[in-house]
């Protein structure tokens, strides 16, 4: 222990004499260890840590799959049959989503209410953080409406008030008594904010429809002793019986079990995070190589010192430990800095209060559960020791192999080659190869992003303002005139100065929401298990012009079509190509069903003639092809909530507050959400791609800079070692250009060799990123060539400085200095 303390004391004293070297090493270690620790903490909290439920491996998400592979959510009547007859499960739970209005001191706000069946929380097997969960007595119609809050909703709306239990949360539907608050991370589905009993009060009439397969979810917990294979065999038999009993809705469909973990953490989250973690590991490895090069260069100047210490009796093992102590000390300081930065980042993400946390949380689940615990600190300590060994072992071993006689004979003279030259060039090649692999990965993502942003979205987003409108529940009653409310609101917004036109649609393009209906084409029967489904767009007459969607064939709705009785429908090109390939669909008939869940007219059949075909609009994002869709007048198929698309004469952001005031003035009980320029809505669909590109691009640039610095440092040191040799060559007639070419050639040989190895590694990187690419292949030649040129140009720039300095060496000065 005393020897270790002595080694650290000597290392500290030695490093104090080289502050520039020490600072460079500390910052390099801080970047590598901090980035790796931060990414591992996210991967650990999101992917590796078990879901916060008892025996989470026994939990499954329940869906139904048709013969064509299409999946749907079970209807509530199907859920009831599964719960009654499926004995392989200890418990099953059902949740249906509902948009609700919360009254606060500042007015009203919208929230997502999860109406859950009895036993839902027993299926999850989770203990509340505060209070209790929902009990069977809460299901009675005579019981006071109870509510359980999610942790994030409790924090955001009630500031984490510990006295919330027993308080009444006032909603537009009435009061809900808060009986519990869930722990952090306990949210399923991920959109839920408040849970209340499904059967308390009058459940929506649509819940009794066996063909309602939207806005719900079903979970199941295996019974003790049962396994997945037994459950699936039982469900197969049960699905067959249900298909025979209800052929119109269940024929051709079978139950499908998916581990709940795979539902919460899907491949769109898992693959990018694991890849980024691997990328940070590469950056850390490059950092270690860079520090090793710095050590080797510095050791070449300490040869005389190490020789004298050896002459005074220092054993080789003692020299190795002392040199390693310097690496450990530098890595430890860098790790402390990196760990502090990682802790701040984790806290920022876990609180969810910042714009960064909100952006990341939009596609990465479970951020609430992130924490800096003993496992993360242990990882940081392990990374510190591993980094110190990786960066310091080779230099320490090389530095301890000092030829005492040669060094003393040379005295203070510099040598002409250096024992570590080949090793340093090899390290430079390794840095270059790793940097190129990351550069190619970032280049592929950048190329994909460029192609995605140039996809035809089907409408003109510039100059558009969007708004989501949630009317109060009284407008959901069968005798309410919801279309009249929407007309009043459209008129109010149209009167705002700067508004050119106002469109109305139930689901905003690029918003990701979708409601489908089964359809019958020209009277053909619906084939069981192969549901013909299309997206239903409930729109007003100005919608087409406001969005500037092209009309392909026939006509759009006229003002006379905006009435309760349906006179015709308009379809998009995707539906025309799917159901009438090569034929004119105008004049053909389509039968479908009203699909606004929760309304009394849900499931009512409608039939109309196709009067026109319009261009395709991307509904789910720029990367997904347009779905088959039909447009119906909002008067014939009213929706309980809607979205406005507002065409403006100038910057749409300037009209956000005027539009909000106009809407609230027209209907005080209205919740207005999502007042956002459409360009921001479109860019929001690329947040995952942008995040991945930002991080990977940052890592790639860091690796490139580290490789360039390492190459510059090594060549600068080699030029210093070869001062005498270069002076002699200059004295006998070597030109400056020849000296420059020689030095640059030496450096570029290492870079080129590393680039060849990096291209091989990049092949694997491209394969890992294949699911994240759009419009490019993992071996896209343009990307590979461009990024390789970037590496080679960086190498040339790094080589040129030392080469020019070598060319300007004065022969007499060089020989005299020896």
Describe it.
It is a single chain. By secondary structure, the protein is α+β, with helices and mostly antiparallel strands. Helices cover 49% and strands 17% of the residues. The chain contains 25 helices and 23 strands. Strands 1, 2, 3, 4, 5, 6, 7, 8, 9, 10 and 11 form an eleven-stranded mixed sheet that branches. Strands 14, 15, 16, 17, 18, 19, 20 and 21 form an eight-stranded mixed sheet that branches. Helix 2 runs antiparallel to helix 13 and helix 16 crosses helix 19. It is globular, with a radius of gyration of 34 Å. The chain starts with a helix and ends with a helix. About 1% of the residues have low confidence.
What labels would you give this structure?
eight-stranded mixed β-sheet, alpha+beta, 818 residues
Describe the structure concisely for a colleague.
With 818 residues, the chain is of the alpha+beta class.
- Please tally the helical runs, counting DSSP H or I stretches of 4 or more residues: 25
Shape, principal axes of CA atoms: globular
Number of strands: 23
- Percent helix, as a range, is 40-55%
Separation, N- and C-terminal Cα atoms? 43 Å
Q: β content, as a range? A: 15-25%
Unreliable residue runs = 412-419
Largest sheet: 11 strands, mixed
Task: Evaluate the radius of gyration.
Answer: 34 Å
Taking all residues together, what is the mean pLDDT? 80
What structural category do the secondary elements indicate? alpha+beta
Oligomeric status of the shown chains?
single chain
